[in-house]
Every structure is written in structure tokens, then in C-alpha cells.
Amino acid sequence: MTAPPMSASPLPRHQRAHGRAELAFAHGPRGTSLRHLFHAAPLRVLFPTPEPDDLPVAALVNVGGGLAGGDSLDTVVSLGEGAAASLTTPAAEKVYRSLDAATRLATSLTLAEGATLEWLPQETILFDGARLERRMQVRLAPTARLLAAEMLVFGRVARGERLRGGALFDSWRLWRGGRLHWADATRLFSEPVASLETAFGFGGAEAAAILLLAGSDAEAAAGRDVLREAGHAATLARPGLLVARFLGEARAVREALAAAIPALRAAALGLPPRLPRLWTS
Q: Which GO terms describe its cellular component (predicted)?
């Protein structure tokens, strides 16, 4: 008796996480209030008690603890006329090694006339072999204001790990008054170590961050002056748009952001010079 022929079984498909959060804020007689909320696991939204003299706060939490290849998180935030809010995260986001599909993060921010938004998540850590596709879409009315920061860490530097394999595509698109106002993209291919180490790339930096302030011409100029006085490189990329970039050791980049954000809040937005409480808790 002969055994039946054996057929190859397909590799098991791993379960993917597809989280989503939607938030809409509106301004009324008592200030800013939440008008719409939707969240789907692994993304959750919490609302820490804000400081009495500060903006309402929403915290985006990935309850899965990290992201693998094929996972995705979509965040959609809208602010009505005159509304104001601050969004942050309670911890760094971790993107794990992937052998196939990329991890996808997509964020959409829409601000009506006179609205003010802070987008201040903590850093994203790319494990060696991580594949990340991150897209930021921002639509601002002519008088809206945005303070936004994003930080990437290239490897688990606390363990001596460097990002040597994997891929990164990081894209920003910002529209002002319905017209594309500014665009930026970073792409690292399957062997990112070459771009990370070269002097014409990241110069061996452990981390990189971008800090963006969109407001009036006067607010952007005030922010530029504050950052330059502190020794940071900052440029008015477009009228009313300040862009600052940070490169270096992971701890130094985070410390620079932690100093620059309160300074910009006070100088350009007239807000108390403080970090989100979750950054320090």
C-alpha cells in the first residue's frame, strides 16, 4: 500500500490588527467639546484631565503594545471653527521586524477657521527589520493653527541595536485654504543602513524628528526666533509655516523636542510653556 501524495500547505496567515480612531471637536459657549468619537481595537482614545489653563487633551493608546507587519492604524481628527485640542500618546510606539508587509500609519487632521491643534505623539521606535509606511495629511483653513511633532528612533538603541534592515516611507502633505502648501517625504529602502550612516543622509544619527508650526506669518516668525536663540536650525518653509529638524542621539533629540515644544507654545500660540503631562508621567 502506498501512502497518498503529500501536498504543500500554505503558510499560516498571521492575524493583522487594523485600528481606527475618529475624533471631532467643536467650539461652543463653554469652550471646546467632543462632538464625535469612534475607536476600534487596538486603538483606543482616553481623555486625561487637562490643566485648568490649558487645552482639552486626548490620548491615543495602542492597547496591542506594538505593531507588526501588515498592521495598520488610521487616525482622523477634525476641529470645528474656533475649537482647540491637544493629542498625544502615553508611550512610544514600537514597530516590530517584518518579513513581508509593511506596517501602515495614516493620520488625517482637518482644522476649520480659528481652530488650534497640537499633534504631539511620543517617539516611534523602528526595530531592526521594521517596514513602516506613514502618511500625514493636514488640511488647514487660512486662520487655523497647528503645532505638530514626530520623532523616529532607528533601532532599539538602549540595547545597542541599529536599524540595518527594513524600509521606511514617511510622507507629509499640508494644505492651506484648499491648496497644497507644503510636502515632504523620506524614503529608506531595504538596506537603510547606508542612508543612515552617510554624511549626506542621517550622518549616523540614532534618531530624527520634525517639529512643525503652522500659523500666521507673525506666529511662525516668533517661533523661528525662539528656536534659533536656543541653537536649533529652523526655517520658514512657506509663509506662516515653520519647520525645524533634529538629528542625533535618541536621548538628545527627545530632550531637544521637550525643550522646543513648550517654547513654541508660549511664543507662538500664547499657551502655557509645558509638555503634555503624559510625556513626563
A: cytoplasm
20-21-24 Cα angle (round to 5) = 150
Please indicate, yes or no, if residue 107 is contained in any of the structural domains.
yes
Q: Please enumerate in sequence order all residues whose Cβ is within 8 A of that of 17, keeping only pairs 6 or more positions apart, or say none.
A: 41, 42, 64, 67, 68, 71, 72
Confidence of residue 193 (pLDDT cuts 50, 70, 90): low
If one counts the domains in the chain, the total is 1
Instruction: Give dist(CA 260, CA 100) in Å, integer.
Output: 37
256-280 confidence digits (pLDDT tens): 999 999 999 999 999 999 999 999 9
Which parts of the chain are beta strand (E)? 18-28, 31-40, 43-46, 57-62, 72-79, 84-88, 93-95, 103-111, 116-120, 124-126, 131-140, 145-154, 167-176, 179-188, 207-214, 234-238, 241-248
Strands 57-62 and 103-111: unpaired
Q: Which domain holds residue 166?
A: 18-279
Is residue 9 a part of any domain in this protein? no
On whether the CB atoms of residues 53 and 67 are closer than 8 A, the answer is: no
Helix 217-229 to helix 250-269 angle, to the nearest 10 degrees? 140
Cell of 259: 525643550
**Residue 155 within a domain:** yes
Nearest to 136 by CA among 243, 221, 279: 243
| Cell 509645558 belongs to residue | 274
Phi-psi region of 266 (alpha: psi -120 to 50; beta: other; left: phi over 0): alpha
Q: State the pLDDT confidence band at 164, using cuts at 50, 70 and 90.
A: confident
Contact, 65 vs 41, CB < 8 A? no
Does residue 94 fall inside a structural domain? yes
